[in-house]
Amino acid sequence: MSTTHHSHEEAVETVRKLIKGIDMAMLTTISEEGLVSRPMKTQEVEFDGDLWFLTKKNTSKFGEILYDPRVNVVYADKSYISIRGTAEIVTDVNKKKELWSAGYDTFLKTSYDDPAVILIKVHAEAAEYWKSGNLAEKAVYMFKRMTGQDTDGLNLNQTVELE
């Protein structure tokens, strides 16, 4: 794995392309007992360095974010993307309205203007990704790893700094 040193805009664009179209993510928070992960629907907004999720105050993740705002968000599809960041609780009614969709009426059994509904805004700090690549790329990558050769040029596993 190598860390690539892109401009902020290039790093954001790399992550934007990797997560585009992936509907669900695993959000990991820190509780007093340790790490906790759960699936969350990502809001359909272009990634600009922040990720958005809708939930309610009466959930464990709300308390966990107040306890420790450090989080990790993982996406898996044709690639695997792990995004490290800091979560913030947002209660802005206009932002909730902007991100609300009809499905939430049923899923959360309420409306966007309910004070119990909150947004989780994750400010991404870094992202590590593993590209699936084609079979030949994977074979070359595995051969080089097993024989102790440099794999940085293959770009199948990279970390980009987003701050």
From TrEMBL:
Q: Which residues cross the membrane?
A: none
Q: What superkingdom does the record give?
A: Bacteria
Q: Which residues form the General stress protein FMN-binding split barrel domain?
A: 10-148
Q: Could you identify this protein by its name?
A: Pyridoxamine 5'-phosphate oxidase family protein
